[in-house]
Amino acid sequence: MLRIRHIACAVALALTAPSVAMAQADVATDTTDAAVPTGQLPRTVVPGLVELELRLDPGQERFSGRTVIHADVARPTDVVWMHGRDLDIRSAEAVLPDGRRIALEDEQVHVSGVLKLAAAGTIPAGDVDIEIAFEAPYGNLMGAYRVKPDGEDYVVTQMEPLGARSTFPGFDEPSFKQPWDVTLIVPADDVALSNGPEVSTETLADGWKKVTFKRTEALPSYLLAFVVGPWDVPVGQDIAPHGPRTTPVPLRGVAAKGQGARMRYSLENTPPMIHAMEDYFGTPYPFAKLDNVAAPDFGAGAMENAGLIIYRDTLMLIDEDASVGQRQSFWGVSAHELAHQWFGNLVTMEWWDDLWLNEAFATWMGNKITGQLQPDFHTDRNILEGGLRAMGADSLASTRRIHQPISNFTEISSAFDGITYQKGGAVLSMFENYVGEEAFRDGVRAYLAANARGNATSTDLIDAIAAQSDEPEGVKRAFLSFIDQPGVPMVKVDVDCADGKAPALVLQQQRYLPLGSTASAGQAWGIPMCVRYAADGTVHEQCGLVEGAQARFELEQAQSCPAWVMPNAHGDGYYRFALAPKWQQALSGAFADLDEREQRVYADSAAAAYGAGELTVAQMIAALPQFATARSRQTATAGMGNVGWIEDHLLTDEASRAALRARFADIYRPRLQSLGMVSKDGESDDDRLLRSTLIGYFAETLEDPAVRSDFVQRGNAVLGLGGDGKLDPDAVVQDLRDTAVSVAVQDGGPAAFDLAEKHLRASQDAVIRRELLSAMGSVTDPALARRARAFVLEPGLLRLNEIYYVIFSQAGEPENRAALREWLEANYDALQAKMAPGGSAIASAYAAGMCSTAEADALQQRFAKRMETIEGGPLDLRQTVEGIGLCAAARSARMGQPIE
After folding, report:
1. Beta sheet of 62-73, edge-to-edge order
2. Per-residue pLDDT at 22 exceeds 50
3. CB count, 10 Å around CB of 14?
4. Cβ(736)–Cβ(699) under 8 Å?
């Protein structure tokens, strides 16, 4: 699954040995007075084939179903522990092979959906069928839920991580992996699709129809999926036989009524991705068909359900003329989800502590395949940039490990974060670079072959990759050091060129800590370190495994002292570095000789020094002009976001703020002028994206009068303000439209807001709606801001995944924060009901702009109890509170520092 997050743990029980924990749980749960298994279920009862029949009417508020779970009972028991959340169970029985039926009394015994079925008699060891009839309400973007984007009713599903238990009773854990027989009974005119191909459709006497699907491969419950409604189902060309696959794979699109024609781009560009992955994995696409669903309302970015991948519709309903961001998102997200068909679906993690096996791998592989097929996208930068972003959260004392023990349900959702996805992807990339691309690929192939159609653990993957390296034990130790401890390595580097010795790097490593951190710096990793250095008139590259707090790295190819040293060659390592002053100055002088990734990690080293308090505000700003000249847009814009924090927390008068904005404008204006204000035929996607970033920065952050005035006029043309009042989305190129609409609504007063609201109510285009909502959410006029907040609770106006466009746009404006907090508090229960079982982002929005220990303490007191049972809530709150404390420490340390 690809999560869309709006912002950037201690555990009660570390389940590092699942088999031991399961065995202990087995003993504990044979009787009715056993403790409730809020983590992993016992293995007393293990499901085999599951038959699931659901009766679904998208126009109703509830649905019903029946399931038969063919299970194996390890030893006699009078309790069956399962999952089922907020289900109305009408009947439950255990049916023995001889036909005897034992009644089961159901009770949901925990808020997470732990279901206790108490047997009226002892269920003997051996085979048993568990038959359950039930009803349930539709969920909120979780489980089976309803959407109504165009006046028509649809059902969509999202089972990961815990949605399945809200849809049907079962064994809702990744290691329970079995085939499914799915039957959907739906209104006669509706389309019904699921993971497997349709086998038959039967018209029923009541006018409904029964659609039966082919038995699936072995799947965990979180990969089960279905959609029901008046969908368009455009058929693409079959994915042609390829490599070891000798049969074609049927490919279809699925879109809301009237939108099917917009799936053409998706259908044309999916087969090349499948073929490229089959080439890499050496294994055929693992399922019988592939449907790409463009869901009108979807909480995640996309979900990798086997054979029925569900995406936000904005990712699928595009064409060649879409914005650069949309096109690149289509390729990146599609490749991510397709990679899951092997990593996650063909081979599944045993427990949620190994979620990184799914998500880190799909992040890394998705970028790799997209870069192979679309080299102009420069997706190698995405892995690097993602890793650098992850370092922010990974620098917190409250951060989590990649391979994080998980003992209760709130911690599962916490694993869907930048540590799992971006840090995990960066670590995989680092080890691929060190082991070698072919050897790494061979390890991946061995892992898939050994675990196909089953479950696996971190050790299984690491052993398979390490076995392909020249130093298996060292690589394994190093790999484990990165996944089994939190934090960012900081490598301090000096150069020893003493007479009579070969030049060498003198290294010290510890954990990187920002100003005010309470974490201990005393950590060490096994770092696959590659360096580049200039010596004897040549640039050399050398790699080695660095272990221990102190190490010496001989520069084997240097006859004399190097002119400069880059301690993270090509930016492939997940670590930060700090050079001794002499060598920092030398590397700065060689900035133009570094490749684009090295320039980016060089810029990050300055950001890290600033974050740790080793650079002043003035020194950090002085470094930015060099970065602004860099070839890659990511380096050119590195550090530009600091202006907002300095304005908010260090400057007290508008004259000082205006002077700061003018100084930042002077740094970046030459780059914007070189690009120009309008797109050019034949220019690169990178130039278009950089122009978009810079224009948004000048118009909205720096409030540059000339740029802002220009874009107000462009935004007015989109809105029809001053003209016919009709929406004209093509009045501005899509790459720049969001900025144009935003400043036009912000500066246009009630007239612009009224038009934006009118267009919102008339449009079903998710991209247009996002732009309009974000614009209206960012107005600072109190009356208009109040109207924007009212959209959130108006019945039927916003899709659930649109709510945070308004809330976080308001949180981004200092003038709106006090009113927003008052509104969030007054409407907390209503908002939480819309977001349940999630909703931790409410606290994050409430906290926007806080930067004092008093505010951190108050936030903790206000939300601690509320977050206890919110999926992901406890960790999100801890990290938000810690972030406020770090902000307070940084402000205290920097207050009074000169800006010039």
Report:
1. 77-83, 114-123, 101-108, 88-95, 126-137, 62-73, 45-55, 180-187, 208-213, 198-203
2. no
3. 12
4. no
Contacts 24+ apart (CB under 8 A), 583-587: 583/493, 583/494, 583/495
- Catalytic residue IDs: 337
Average pLDDT over residues 119-132: 98
Collapsed DSSP state (helix, strand, coil) of residue 161: coil
Predicted pLDDT at 103: 98
The string of DSSP letters for 525-572 reads --EEEEEEEEETTEEEEEEEEE-SSEEEEE-TT-SS--SEEESSGGG-
Secondary structure of the chain: what % helix, strand, coil (to 5)?
A: 45, 20, 35
Measured torsion, CA atoms of residues 69, 71, 76, 81, in degrees rounded to the nearest 10:
-50
Count how many residues are written for the chain: 900
**What does the pLDDT look like over 451-479, one tens digit per residue?**
999 999 999 999 999 999 999 999 999 99
**What residues does 95 pair with on adjacent strands?**
101, 129
Contacts of 623 (CB under 8 A, 6+ apart): 603, 606, 615, 639
**Closest Cα partner for 466 from 420, 430, 431?**
431
Task: Decide the pairing of beta strands 77-83 and 88-95.
Answer: unpaired
What average pLDDT is seen over the chain? 94
Amino acid 3: pLDDT: 65
What is the DSSP-derived secondary structure letter of residue 126? E
pLDDT tens-digit readout, 31-84: 444 699 999 999 999 999 999 999 999 999 999 999 999 999 999 999 999 999
Rounded to whole angstroms, the Cα distance separating 797 from 791 reads 7
Tokens of 610: 């600033």
For residue range 365-416, what is the model confidence (pLDDT) as tens digits?
999 999 999 999 999 999 999 999 999 999 999 999 999 999 999 999 999 9
Residue with tokens 């060598």: 583
516: left (phi over 0), alpha (psi -120 to 50) or beta: left
Residue 115, helix vs strand vs coil: strand
Phi, psi of 511 (to 5 degrees): -85, 135
